[in-house]
Amino acid sequence: MLKLTIDQIIALFENDQIDEITKKINLLHPGDAAQIINELPAEYQVKAFNQLSSELASDVINDLHDELREDVLETIQQNRLVEIMDEMDSDEATDIAAELDEHQLKDVLQKIDKEDSEEIKQLLIYDEDTAGGIMQKEIITVNKEMNRAEMIDHIRDNYDDVEKLYYIFVTDEENKLIGILEASKLLLCKSEMKALDIMDKDVISAPVEMDQEEVAGIFRKYDIYILPVIDKENHLLGRITVDDIIDVIDEEASEDVYKMVGLENEDKVFTSPLSSVRKRLPWLTLNLFTALLVSSVVGVFEATIARLSFLAVLMPIVAGLGGNSGTQTLTVITRGIALGELTLHNTYRAIVKEITVGIINGLLIGSVAMLIAYLFKGNILLGAVLGISMVCNMFIAGLVGSSIPVVMKTLKIDPALASSVIITMLTDIGGFASFLGLATLLL
To answer: Whose CB has fewer CB within 10 Å in the chain, the N or C terminal residue?
Structure first.
């Protein structure tokens, strides 16, 4: 496999050796070509993509960074785009079609292969985050009454249109899915056997409206490579392959991480500063108001802080550890929800477990903090205040960190959305209130 470095590509561009770039870059694996183009300086990225053959470009374009792909689609010639989309599977072509403006999409759909155009139109109907939105229409189906020879001839006639032919779907006269057939089993069966005789009738499938995260759960649970997609009447509509699900898992994981800190997936490393500001400002504004709420709790104990100013040094310890503990719990519970580990029957047990972990951690960390405070100030009551408040805040962290995402899920709100800011606010309030309240009573 040819290895081409970023520096070599840049040197060729600087020396205006475009033909040499075209020759070498088209020998690369699509994954390597996409990586190189993504990492090139901005002034060479679109130029490098334009040197790709239509076949290679069709494998590369969806792996480009979002901003770069937008630049490519804004500058690409229409005939070139049509050639690229004609090379793509229906699901990938639909992803590109969804990024085109209405006028551009209309022109492209008129010029590409008529059958491909119809498939893209059908796929555009479905929400992009559903099974219908990620499925591809390229499938091979056989009628239940076909024998081995007929099935092999049918596969031979349609093989060029379908990649990764692990399974053949068996349907009845109304195109309803009734079974699935491994390609290897077809090769080994006797010539007179029909699809109905050798198919697996226990078919795992996904409704077309199923959320893509649930689809990923099916792949994970049953360890499968291909999943048929059906409508409410069990008509076969398409299939989802495991490589599509890898992209979904990566997308969902990134989305959850972004949401937990109040960002959108579209906010990337090289997003324009103004665009990033627009995406981040609402969250920071929310943080401002929660911080004001926390500070108002501290204000209640202003007299205590004025009298015992050294409390201000220790306050961040209680709040900080409580916040970190709450975030740990939130991460565990949110992941459990995403993987389907939490159900109606075991949620209570999970919450009790996290509260128990919080209390135990509070006792252990609080004991250490108590000793440190005593050594620092020589005041056993101060150590007791710090230790007890640590236990209280760790309890709060376990409670809110486990219950808030569960409540949000029950309300059909993404558990990752805003959970962290709510938990941080509650642990800060709980930490300051318990620490300063105990200090007021005991010191």
So the answer is: N
Helix (H) or strand (E) holding 370: helix 347-377
Residue 355 belongs to domain with CATH number? 1.10.357.20
pLDDT at residue 339 tops 80: no
Predicted confidence at residue 240, as pLDDT, reads 94
Enumerate the H helices of 127-241 as residue ranges.
131-134, 148-158, 183-188, 195-198, 212-222
Q: Supply the range of the domain harboring residue 193.
A: 141-243
Beta bridge partners of 141: 169
Predicted pLDDT of residue 267? 62
| Other CB atoms within 10 A of residue 77 CB | 9
Q: CA 367, CA 199: separation in Å to the nearest integer?
A: 64
Instruction: Please determine, for residue 264, whether its predicted confidence score (pLDDT) is greater than 60.
Output: no
Alpha-carbon distance of 271 to 131, in angstroms, equals: 29
Could you say which of 81, 103, 130 is where a domain stops?
130
Lookup: tokens for 410: 């029950």
Total domain count, the chain: 3
